[in-house]
Amino acid sequence: MKQVLAVLAAAVLAGCGGGGSSSGGSEAGTAATETALSAQAQLGAKIFVDQTLSASGRQSCQSCHDPARAHGAPDDHAGQPGGKDTLTDQGGRSSPSIRYLKFNASFAFANDGTPTGGFFWDGRATSLKDQAGGPFLNPAEMANDSVEDVVAKVAKASYAAEFRQVFGQDIFSRPQDAYDRLKLALQAFEQEDPAFAPFSSKYDEVLRGKATLTAQEQRGLVLFNSPAKGNCAACHPSAKGADGSHPLFTDFSYDALGVPRNPKLKTVQDDPGFFDLGLCALPGFESRADLCGAFKVPTLRNVALRGSFFHNGRFTDLKEVLSFYVTRDTDPARWYTQADGSVVKFDDLPERYRRNVNRTEAPYNRQAGAAPALTEAEIDDLIAFLKTLNDGYVTP
Q1: What's the Rg (C-alpha) of the chain?
Q2: Are the C-beta atoms of 141 and 91 separated by less than 8 Å?
Q3: What are phi and psi of 266, to 5 degrees?
Q4: Helices (runs of H) and strands (runs of E) counted in the chain
Q5: Does 142 reside within a domain?
Q6: Which strand (E) or helix (H) includes residue 268?
């Protein structure tokens, strides 16, 4: 599934300002800081933080996409709280970072059949604009009853006059159009504000020749790129693009990793027979059993700032994530032991779909009892490198 890399992602990104398979830009973020946001993007910035646009009056886009956490989840919850009144509902998936998504494209199958692109964990949204409209109407998130409900709230907002000035004095009399413009404003904000793609990590400074990795960080980079060790670069390319643009640390593809079931998710608590099937659950893909269990490959930029990991938020510690990667197959009892003491490998998928889980690429290509691809010390080295991907690096 993952043999896509340069040629595929270059084609995917060509229409949306991206570089090569691993790239999105380098100096673009610096240049953007000198450019004022458009009127639409300024509106988007206000909408992004407006809690009054939720049914509870207590939730905004920023509630699940905190700038202090690289526009990802603000905590380590498996799913963020939401709903009508008391925020007692829970999102069915973890909230990923939305940084660097402006370099993504809509979902498509490559010539070799590899799925790539799309927004949300399952790629169901076609653009940032499409994605922006989802949470307002999701009953477990901002929980508005209808488009008209959302637009009525915008019409009462402090920026309503500004909204009319940008999109037309009669815009609120046309709710569907007004909702479309709301989504357009949010997309403009995410595309234009340099905070969503700053390329300001230590690793970016290294690529610019303005910083140097420590010995441990350099060892971690070698492990990250090594096909026989971490093999992270197979899905999270780390090299500059052919045009010199900086890597995005995702190829925007999908993979089935067999992440253990998370009992902290309300969907699992309410229905022990429920399984989140990912890509194959989308309308039109019901017959694609080979896609069941596949979820979007996220960027590893700012990964050390995350409080929860994977689509189901199963892990809350980066070292535990890497330990899972390298011992999933060599010590499955560590991750898949059930309440009755049995070991059910890949327990968050129905048995008939477990064959889809990636077992051919390192570090997953090992048998039970074999040595893991990384030692504990090597995991620490890899984490040291991953921390260099955090935005906001200041040269000492």
Answers
A1: 21
A2: yes
A3: -65, -30
A4: 14, 6
A5: yes
A6: helix 266-270
Q: State how far the alpha carbon of 182 is from the alpha carbons of 48, 106, 153, in Å.
A: 10, 20, 12
Q: What does the alpha-carbon distance between residue 53 and residue 81 come to, in Å, rounded to a whole number?
A: 16
Which residues make beta-bridge pairs with 315? 309
Q: Judge if 169 and 84 occupy the same domain.
A: yes
Determine the distance from the C-alpha atom of residue 191 to the mean position of all C-alpha atoms in its chain, rounded to a whole number: 16
Distance in angstroms (rounded) separating the CA atoms of residues 19 and 152: 40
Question: Is the bond preceding residue 198 a cis peptide, omega within 30 degrees?
Answer: no
pTM: predicted TM-score of the whole model, two decimal places: 0.91
Give the Cα separation of 240 and 395 in Å (integer).
21
Quick: pLDDT tens for 192-205. 999 999 999 999 99
Q: Are residues 53 and 183 in the same domain?
A: yes
Domain range for 97 is 36-196
**Amino acid identity, position 94:** S
Task: Note whether 191 and 211 are same-domain residues.
Answer: no
Task: Classify the C-alpha dihedral 28-33-36-39 as positive or negative.
Answer: positive
Round to whole Å and give the CA distance between 152 and 163: 12
101 and 206 share one domain: no
**Tokens standing for residue 355:** 């064959």
How many structural domains are present in the chain? Answer: 2
Rounded-to-integer distance, Cα 341 and Cα 334, Å:
11
Domain check: are 308 and 354 in the same one?
yes
Count other Cβ atoms within 10 Å, centred on residue 30: 14
Q: Is the residue at 21 inside a domain?
A: no
pLDDT tens-place string over residues 224-263:
999 999 999 999 999 999 999 999 999 999 999 999 999 9
Residue 134 zone, left/alpha/beta (φ > 0; ψ -120 to 50; rest): alpha
Cβ atoms of 195 and 67 within 8 Å: the answer is yes
